[in-house]
Design brief:
1 helix; single chain; mainly beta; about 80 residues
Length: about 80
């Protein structure tokens, strides 16, 4: 997975890994080719993002208030051009 994609995703859909993982709903997660993980969660009032080998101590974590979070799809992802 291209690092720039991960960074863009972290800026657009952001969050940080905090205590209480069980209380959040997973929006997106994946494993990268180099053994790291990406996790985006809906934690109620915040959208949380974490990246790293061990998500208990992530290399990067962000948390954004729900009302400030947004998403976008690049060409080829999401709705077809004619929809």
């Amino acid at each position: 997975m291209d690092r720039s994609v991960i960074m863009k995703a972290s800026l657009v859909i952001a969050g940080s890994l905090c205590t209480g993982l069980a209380s959040a709903d997973v929006i997106f997660s994946c494993d990268t080719k180099n053994g790291k993980q990406v996790l985006v969660e809906d934690a109620g009032e915040h959208i949380k993002y974490a990246f790293g080998r061990d998500l208990n101590s992530p290399e990067l974590s962000l948390s954004v208030p729900r009302e400030a979070a947004s998403t976008w799809q690049w060409k080829g992802i999401g709705l077809k051009d004619d929809q």
